[in-house]
Amino acid sequence: LPFTVVAWLSIFPLTALEVGICALVVFLAMVVERLLGHSVLWGDLVGPLWLLTLIAGTAMVSGMSQLHYMFSLVRRVTFDALTGALTRRTGIDLLESQFRLAVMRDRAFCLCFLDIDRFKTINDGFGHDSGDAVLREVAARLSRTLRQGDAMIRWGGEEFVLLLGDTDKEGARVVVSRLAANGFGVRPDGVPVTASLGIAERRVDHVLHWSELIDLADRRMYQSKVGGRNRAVLGEDDVMADLIARPNAASRAALNWA
Question: What is the pLDDT of residues 204-233, one digit of tens each?
């Protein structure tokens, strides 16, 4: 029975320490049972101890393999493999909970919808590997710029959503300025990467549901695109233009810049 109990541990995702503790408890129980029966011979315990150690080692490997597999599945669902940002599904859950918490506490909550400008020209002109490298660099710069309590979601393709808790419109303006100062990296041809941003804040914009906040930020991001790209729209007639220095005329002509 003691060996069966330890073997059963292999079906549970336990750490090596947990399996070791359980195996030790079983071994001590086996020793106590023999002591109570006045049939203990220490030499007779060597064989059972060796077998128990072998079974416990197998259970450790099995349990830790299950843990590793579970963690990899959770990470795959939670984080985007390319950029390290939250996936859209996980991000929506976080956005919903943070928005609800902001409403309950009547706190500011800002959302930034960011789209990399002319990203398709990178994939078409330099290949998808170059496009992936640009995405990774943009995500890394965004992650370094954001505060610890903020969150970054890869919404799809070259689109990112930034969750800025306890941040009003003026705080969002500071965040945009900091993003522009740090830049978004460079394209394969050396031209700076630019982005179009749309900002929405739940109290100023009188938003009652998180989905409305996303839609409003998305519309304002589209206004940034229509208005000439490389800018952030924070509200009606509230635009931060030319976030990143424009390329020279030759580069602009080559890339058909607006």
Answer: 999 999 999 999 999 999 999 999 999 999
